[in-house]
Amino acid sequence: MGPDPNAEATFVPHRYEPNYAYPLLVLLHRRGGDEQQLVDAMPTMSWRNYVGLGLRGPEALTRGGRPAGFDWGPAFRHPRRRPGPQWEEPEPSGLISRVMAGGPADPVDAIEDALFAGVRRTMRALHVHSERIFLVGIGEGAAVAYRIGLSHPDRFAGVVAINGWIPRGFRPLARWHECRSLRILALHGLWNARAPLQDARKDVAMLRNAGLRVGFRGYESARAITPMMLSDIDSWLIDQCTAPVD
């Protein structure tokens, strides 16, 4: 099992009804996880309410010479924990070789392309409501959700960020006018040492000050996804799907 831009896992609701247009949750794992991580949590959230699409990060990790899950790349690591400058930009020789080989020069673009391709495949296979597509990420996956959601607010109904952060290296409010219709829910463990609570609060305050509607909830946990988090996500998603259009 290695990096594969098409690696994905799908959650099909219990007693799937093909005549009903389901909300789609695009599920983005944390560093060290894989496409199955959040798909496995779907039954605790809801057996019946959503279609889930779990995607795999493009970088394979190893620990002690053994596979240790996947990562989304340096662009999505927490600003306090990024590696040194050698990770900030690819070496020119590596960049040139990728371009000459016909590969994507920008790894963030490649992640976006893979995500949109996965959504299209899911919509062909299952009945998905095109205006109820949500990005749901944890840790580094939440950083991916923030970046793609804020960069393409017209393509998504909302973002759920679990123990996440807004990544650096892009302008989160470049599409400020469209972003005001994007709904965001941030959930954070009060004891999260890797991504401190105060940093998450600063991100939320920045978005709120810009006029975005952002819900924020703290939990007595560190980095784990708790049943209470999943229950609150379910309730929030139902509210978004049943709320009148502005």
Automatic annotation (TrEMBL):
Organism of origin: Tautonia sociabilis
On whether Transport is a keyword of this UniProt record, the answer is: no
Q: Where is this region: Disordered?
A: 70-93
> Among its keywords, does the record have Disulfide bond?
no
Output the InterPro entries linked to this UniProt entry. Answer: AB_hydrolase_fold, Plant_Biomass_Hydrol_Est, PLipase/COase/thioEstase
Q: What name appears for this protein in its UniProt entry?
A: Esterase
Tell me any Pfam family this protein matches: Abhydrolase_2
Its keywords, alphabetically, are:
Signal
Upper taxonomic classification of the species?
A: Bacteria, Pseudomonadati, Planctomycetota, Planctomycetia, Isosphaerales
A GO molecular function term, named singly, is: hydrolase activity
Q: Where is the Phospholipase/carboxylesterase/thioesterase domain?
A: 120-237
